[in-house]
Structure to design on (518 residues):
């Protein structure tokens, strides 16, 4: 007999033993004389079930997990004899956590072999590209604009407006740049899609190139993502060989090519102008704006800079139509958002759904509450620069404007959960320390303000003139918020001020000996 098995090669799955499980399956099969084919996929995003092993059946895939090396012999015996196994989860597509998602961007992630262009095409890949060729630049731009797609990297700027600006710019050369410098805490969606469905990113960037008249693109990936770098490079070579990159792509009159550039580990290079400086071979320091990158970007040429998830959403928009995409979501937040659940949470992973689900649903229902079993006290949304929300704000819909109205930001869609043992003074201090360490140093509010912030919060922790120092921290935050050149210094006040506002009791002066006795 022969079996087709699927095991993730995603970095998250590999970190908990997926490579060892795949090797053990091969060895156990050889010992038993069983013929198996192991397909190394991306991850389904259910990280608490990794390593996940799926087996192909006439009725669809059946999942088992989490599987360890020690489980392999009994699992293989159960598969060979078609008998039950304790790790059996049932049909993969019927697992409730996966079934309740709306997977548009991540539809293929964990399903296909990310190294196989044929597999990508067999599952609808390059359908958007082919329609784009038939439409032409102006009509593509209209589709992207009508879809309501906004930047998924954090700012939420309308993608169609950005592309239109570059398309209308006059220049002898234009560029497409993919910001894959995913440095926010609790975020891993960019990495997952690059490792699990790299051709999707290539297709989206290629469509962008056709739209604005760019012939060259760069994918800027953080150095901490070696698996993603390898996956993207392999996919680029495969796309070039198949004629989807290079001269006269897909048999058309358009030319577009791509290459990967690896960052040096600077968080600030997630800011678009710092990223451009790094791409040009210089230290990643923020540029003053204007001019905007859309007018004067990479090497001084008009440049489209979008996040991985923004480019990855484009093929669906073109393949299925702007209206189909825009039908998901709420208000000005259209389509779906790949939300990443991390921190002290029972079911950590990637959950893609339409905008509008509440924070409480995500944390309590979908995430299953804390892993420790203690009450949830605080949730940080939007990375290390995101605000801390208490349970009183769990009715907030996951929507750009709804979060902004409550002094928060969605950012890249990362959610980090804390239980009631968290010390919010130290979380506020961490925000300032993070900014001080990662600041490019160009502007004084960020460079000096964050350092003074660490010092002042330490004084509060030590009980020194608490009231006066709290007022000083708030004043310092306002200076950073309105005086910094970029979002690093400008958004650092969000976690600090939200901690002060919603968890003020943590910052209260310690009672005197007499008060304590009373």
């Amino acid at each position: 007999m022969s079996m087709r098995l699927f095991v993730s090669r995603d970095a998250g799955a590999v970190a908990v033993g997926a490579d060892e499980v795949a090797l053990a399956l091969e060895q156990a099969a050889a010992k038993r004389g069983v013929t198996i084919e192991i397909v190394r996929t991306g991850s389904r995003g259910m990280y608490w079930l990794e390593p996940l092993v799926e087996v192909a059946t006439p009725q669809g895939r059946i999942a088992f997990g989490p599987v360890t090396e020690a489980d392999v012999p009994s699992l293989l015996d159960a598969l060979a004899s078609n008998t039950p196994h304790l790790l059996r989860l049932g049909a993969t597509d019927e697992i409730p956590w996966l079934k309740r998602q709306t997977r548009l961007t991540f539809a293929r992630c964990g399903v296909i072999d990310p190294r196989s262009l044929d597999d990508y095409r067999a599952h609808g890949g390059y359908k958007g590209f082919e329609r784009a060729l038939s439409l032409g630049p102006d009509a593509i731009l209209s589709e992207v604009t009508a879809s309501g797609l906004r930047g998924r990297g954090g700012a939420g700027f309308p993608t169609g407006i950005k592309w239109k600006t570059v398309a209308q710019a006059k220049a002898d050369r234009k560029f497409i740049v993919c910001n894959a410098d995913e440095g926010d805490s609790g975020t891993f969606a960019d990495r997952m899609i690059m490792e699990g469905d790299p051709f999707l990113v290539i297709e989206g960037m290629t469509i962008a190139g056709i739209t604005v008249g760019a012939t060259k693109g760069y994918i800027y990936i953080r150095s901490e993502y070696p698996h993603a770098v390898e996956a993207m490079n392999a996919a680029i070579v495969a796309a070039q060989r198949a004629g989807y990159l290079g001269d006269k792509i897909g048999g058309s009159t358009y030319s577009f090519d791509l290459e990967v550039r690896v960052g040096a580990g600077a968080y600030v290079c997630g800011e678009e102008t710092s990223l451009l400086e790094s791409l040009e071979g210089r230290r990643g320091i923020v540029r003053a704006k204007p001019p905007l990158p859309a007018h004067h970007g990479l090497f001084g040429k008009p440049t489209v800079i979008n996040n991985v998830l923004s480019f990855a959403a484009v093929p669906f928009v073109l393949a299925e139509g702007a209206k189909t995409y825009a039908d998901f979501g709420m208000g000005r937040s259209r389509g779906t958002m790949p939300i990443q659940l991390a921190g002290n949470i029972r079911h950590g992973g990637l959950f893609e759904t339409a905008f509008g689900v509440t924070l409480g649903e995500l944390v309590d229902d979908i995430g299953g509450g804390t892993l420790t079993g203690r009450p949830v006290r605080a949730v940080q949304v939007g990375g290390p620069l995101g605000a801390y929300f208490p349970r009183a704000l769990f009715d907030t819909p996951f929507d750009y404007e709804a979060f902004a109205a409550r002094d928060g930001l969605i950012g890249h869609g990362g959610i980090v959960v804390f239980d009631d043992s968290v010390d919010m003074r130290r979380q506020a201090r961490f925000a300032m320390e993070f900014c001080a360490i990662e600041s490019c140093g160009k502007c004084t509010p960020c460079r000096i303000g964050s350092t003074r912030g660490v010092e002042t919060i330490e004084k509060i922790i030590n009980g020194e003139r608490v009231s006066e120092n709290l007022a000083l921290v708030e004043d310092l935050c306002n200076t950073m918020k309105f005086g910094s050149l970029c979002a690093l210094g400008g958004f650092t006040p969000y976690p600090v001020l939200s901690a002060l506002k919603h968890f003020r009791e943590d910052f209260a002066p310690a009672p005197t000996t007499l008060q304590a006795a009373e």
The radius of gyration is 24 Å.
